[in-house]
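Progress report, Aim 2. The chain analyzed during this reporting quarter is listed below.
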Amino acid sequence: MISIVIPLFNEELSLQLLYERICSVFKEDVELIFIDDGSTDGSLQVLEKISSRDNRVKIISFRRNFGKSAALSAGFKKACGDIIVTMDADLQDQPEEVLKLIDKLQEGYDLVIGWKYPRLDPITKKFPSKVINSLTSFFTGLKIHDMNSGLKVMRKEVVEEVPLYGELHRYMPHLAHMKGFKVTEMKVKHMERKFGKSKFGAKRFLSGIFDLLTIIFLGKFGKKPLHFFGLFGLILFLIGFCINIYIAYLRFKYSSILGRLPLLLLGILNMIIGIQFISMGLIGELLTSFYVKEKEYSIKREINFKDSQ
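Predicted C-alpha cells for the chain:
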C-alpha cells in the first residue's frame, strides 16, 4: 500500500486535474489523503465530489489554517501505507515522477526528496531558498539542494519517528538524518504554477531562519540544554570573576580602584549574566527530565523478539 499525503490551502482549480494525473499513474494499492488546511475557496467541495466517486480518496478538513506541518502530521497519523508520499496540490510537483523516487527508495534509502531541477520559480523565491538550503546543509551535515520540496517518498518508520510541529516540515530530511535514517535526493521535473498564487513570502523566509536555529539546538543540545547554556554562562562568569579579581588586587594594593568603576560594573554584570545562563541550563535539564517523551534512539531492526515480550 502506498499512501499519498497532500496538504492544501485554496487550490480549488488544481485538485481535479491533480487527482486524474495521480490515478493515471497509480491504478491500485494506493490511498489519497487530502488535508484541507482551512481553505476559504471551494477546495473542500471539490474534494467531497471526488471522494464520493472514489473511496480511495480520504479527506481531513481543518477548522482553520494551522500550517503545513500540522496538515502533514494529521495525514501521517491516518496513513496506512508502508510507503508514504507527500506532494503539494498546486501541480508543480509531477505525480509521474513519484515512481522514480520509489525505485530510488528501494535501493536502501529511508527518505528520498525530489530536487526540482531546473526550478521554475521566480528569483524572489529561489534566492532565499538557496540561502536557507546552504546554511542548513552546512550546519546539519546533510547536503540537500531543495529541502523545501513538497515531493518526498519515505518509509512508514520515518513519519513515525520524526516529530513535526511549527514549520519544521521543511527540515524533515534533516530531522530524519539526525535520527540515523538514510536520506538522499533525486532530480525531478518541475512545472510553473498554473492556478492560484504562491504562499511563499518574507515571513516564511524569516521563519526558516528561526526554525534552522531550532533544528541546530534540538539536534545538538535538545536533550542536554545545560551543555549549551552552561558553556556560555561559565565563560561569562569566569570573565567577570577575573575582572573582579583584578579590581580587588588594585583595591588592596593602592587602596583605590584607580577610576576603574566601569570595569568593575562590567565584571559584576558578566558574573550575574553567567549565573543566569547556568540557571537556565539547569532549569532546562529539569524540564527535560520531567517532560521529554521522544525516544533518544532509533531502532532499525529487531531479531528474535516476540510480541509477548
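The mean pLDDT is 85. The radius of gyration is 25 Å. These observations will guide the mutagenesis work planned for the next reporting period.
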